[in-house]
Design goal:
The chain has 278 residues and is an alpha/beta fold. The chain contains eleven helices and six strands. Helix 3 (37-47) crosses helix 10 (222-233), helix 4 (66-83) runs parallel beside helix 10 and helix 10 (222-233) packs across helix 11 (238-277).
């Protein structure tokens, strides 16, 4: 028996993960969400943004991290819309990011009476992150000139009165890559524009350094960060449901690890007894 516990067929493990995940996606269970201090700080920063200024939503992610970055972005955009804040979507890492974010905003817009061009705008993707940020902070309409659809910014009410970074109350950046450093160097460093950062769970450990240094004022980590923000906004959504599946799969893995250790310890004890009896 002990040998079997140590050598559970991987196909059984995969099947158990599939069954647990599938069952919880089919019949969602909402577990209590405990909000982390960094998640609360992100919410507080957006909550205190100036109504007359613009919020930049930096979509430095693509479809591969939709579950994490996409749900983080959705929760924060919902918060902006509830607060009646105007925002502009930008992106420098992945060409699809701004369009995916616009799709999210367009889906939520009818619930809050938001209108494209009046309340929010997609400024599109630009390559060369560092160079783009250096130009953007000095003259936003001069750098972009038109939105992602080709409409001159001068014709969009949301961009009226917006000139440089001084007209931006915060930047919410979501990414699956190492792009945060450029925002800190070229935006936060010289202008102290507040930054909220949302990242995938796999790169989160390296981002806590910037949080501890006060260079970012809030951090959303993976799916957990999205679920935290959903609950802070008062609208539990997809991330909250997905967290249950993720949590139960983690619990399953812990149980399998414990069984493996029981098998190892039991086999070792049995071997010692066999040696003693010889």
């Amino acid at each position: 028996m002990y040998e079997q516990l140590q050598k559970i067929d991987r196909r059984i493990v995969y099947l158990l993960v599939f069954v647990v995940t599938g069952a919880l996606l089919k019949w969602p269970v909402r577990l209590p969400v405990v909000v982390s201090p960094e998640g609360q700080e992100a919410y507080n920063l957006i909550q205190n943004t100036a109504p007359e200024k613009l919020v930049l939503v930096a979509a430095d992610w693509d479809a591969g991290t939709l579950a994490e970055n996409g749900n983080q972005t959705r929760a924060l955009i919902r918060h902006l819309m509830k607060l009646k804040r105007k925002f502009a979507i930008i992106g420098f890492a992945w060409p699809a990011g701004p369009q995916l974010t616009e799709n999210i905003a367009s889906e939520l817009a009818p619930d809050y009476g938001y209108e494209y061009g009046r309340d929010y705008v997609n400024l599109g993707y630009k390559p060369q992150l560092s160079v783009s940020l250096m130009a953007l902070v000095k003259d936003i309409p001069g750098f972009y000139k038109q939105d992602a659809k080709g409409t001159p910014l001068s014709q969009l009410p949301v961009m009226q009165g917006i000139h440089g970074i001084e007209d931006v109350s915060a930047i919410a950046q979501f990414t699956s890559a190492s792009t945060l450093e450029a925002y800190i160097v070229f935006v936060w460093g010289p202008y102290k524009t507040p930054l909220v950062h949302g990242c995938t769970a796999i790169i989160a450990p390296q981002q806590y350094v910037y949080l501890d240094a006060g260079q970012i004022e809030g951090l959303l980590v993976g799916l957990r960060g999205a679920a935290e923000y959903e609950n802070l906004v008062g609208h539990p959504d997809v991330a909250t449901e997905l967290m249950a599946a993720q949590s139960f799969v983690h619990l399953l893995i812990m149980v399998l690890i414990i069984l493996g250790n029981i098998g190892y310890l039991g086999a070792r004890r049995a071997a010692r007894r066999a040696e003693a009896s010889v």
